[in-house]
Write a structure and sequence with these properties.
- By secondary structure, this protein is an alpha/beta fold.
- The protein contains 16 helices and 8 strands.
- The protein has an 8-stranded mixed β-sheet with strand order 3-2-4-1-5-6-7-8, with helices on both faces.
- α9 runs parallel beside α10.
- It starts with 6 loop residues before the first helix and ends with a helix.
């Protein structure tokens, strides 16, 4: 219990035992003779009284600490709902989440330095546009990853307007306008007609292009739009590919169809389509093998898969997406040419734009092929696959020059 003792309480307690000792000596004379003329019981009575005084007695003197009087404090000025949160830690300031445009600008920073900055430096080093500047500009454009055709197309636009260009800003504005015009012609987001169910997407691309994660991100995109999605693992040549895709499918809560390693890819695609039809899914995404595009048997397998799907559901696949790794630069142009000639690619996805300065290849691809650019990948996060918007892309690409 919680008692409160004063110093004199301890003295009284000690005296009670002194008087008790005197009582014993007076009554029995064990050690010494007490020369006090008083009866022994008197000393016993005094000892008992003193002892009782020192010991806490409920109702008489409990010796508990006095109640602390409530004093006005700051708590009285705090609303009740606020005081409930007092024991908790103060809420930490919310961390600002970057917008999609901010993430895009960050993701394209390397391409800005390796593409736009190199061109801008040509004009910054000279006060006027003359033959030497044009020669240096031509060399710089050809040295970027936009491809020879696109490089000379942009160069000819600058050369024709060279007499009217009197500053680096005007030159960069002209280049920006031409790049935006090229990219704008390929801006066409992927949409699903209401009458088509399931909408079948066949995803192609070489190993290492980011095909597996891109499929998961596209599935999540459709899931967020309220669509039911099923994924079929048609890359049966690698057991790891099946396991990885299943992991991603579970992560985005998409239905999943698979077969054992070495199974016929077109058979897996067929099973996926049957499952999509029977289960009433809105979207079927089919992964395909990703061996080197120079191998003829790969293209033949992809053609076979396409034919099998069309036989089961006329018009399928409704979209053939080609996933390209932007870090390989101009090689992506050649991959596009090979896959498109064999399959008739209907949409492009450029991934890993954040990991390389070679992202300018998107301009070359847009200039050389009449294929819509559906998505761009600017990071590893699930929200880092963005629907391609030419205006936002160009603004992010030229962001530092505008600052």
């Amino acid at each position: 219990m919680n008692y409160r003792f004063h110093k004199h309480d301890y003295i009284i307690f000690l005296l009670s035992y002194v008087f008790f000792y005197i009582y014993i000596e007076k009554a029995q004379g064990v050690f010494i003779d007490i020369p006090v003329d008083a009866p022994a019981w008197l000393f016993l009575l005094i000892a008992v009284v003193l002892n009782l005084w020192a010991i806490p007695l409920p109702g008489i003197h409990p010796r508990t600490p006095p109640a602390i009087e409530a004093k006005p404090s700051e708590l009285e000025q705090i609303p009740a709902e606020e005081t409930k949160r007092l024991p908790e830690e103060k809420a930490k300031p919310a961390v600002a989440v970057p917008s999609s445009k901010e993430r895009l600008a960050k993701g394209l920073s390397k391409t800005h330095k390796g593409f736009i900055d190199r061109i801008a430096d040509v004009f910054r080093r000279h006060a006027a546009i003359d033959a030497n500047v044009l020669s240096e500009l031509e060399e710089t454009l050809v040295g970027t990853d936009i491809g020879i055709r696109t490089a000379y197309k942009i160069f000819e636009d600058i050369r024709k307007e060279s007499t009217a260009i009197d500053s680096a800003d005007k030159a960069m504005t002209l280049i920006r306008t031409e790049i935006e015009r090229i990219l704008k012609s390929r801006e066409q987001p992927l949409s699903i007609p209401e009458a088509v169910k399931p909408f079948v997407i066949m995803v192609t691309g070489v190993n290492g292009s980011g095909k597996t994660t891109t499929i998961a991100k596209i599935a999540r995109h459709f899931k967020n739009a309220g669509k039911s999605v099923i994924i079929a693992s048609g890359d049966t040549f690698r057991a790891a590919a099946i396991e990885q895709l299943e992991h991603w499918a579970n992560l985005v809560e998409a239905d999943f169809v698979k077969s054992q390693e070495g199974a016929d890819p077109s058979a897996v695609a067929f099973d996926g389509l049957e499952a999509a039809l029977s289960r009433g899914h809105d979207v079927l995404i089919i992964d395909t093998a990703g061996r080197l595009h120079t191998r003829e048997n790969l293209m033949e397998e992809l053609k076979k898969t396409s034919r099998v799907l069309d036989k089961k559901l006329p018009g399928a696949p409704h979209e053939i997406l080609l996933v390209l790794d932007a870090t390989i630069g101009q090689n992506a142009i050649e991959q596009t040419r090979q896959f498109n000639s064999s399959l008739g690619i209907t949409g492009l996805v450029l991934t890993k734009l954040d990991g390389s300065a070679k992202g300018g290849v998107i301009v070359g691809i847009a200039n050389e092929f009449e294929i819509p650019i559906r998505y761009i990948g600017i990071g590893e996060g699930m929200d880092d696959l963005q629907t391609f918007a030419a205006g936002d892309f160009v603004s992010a690409l030229f962001a530092e020059n505008e600052a």
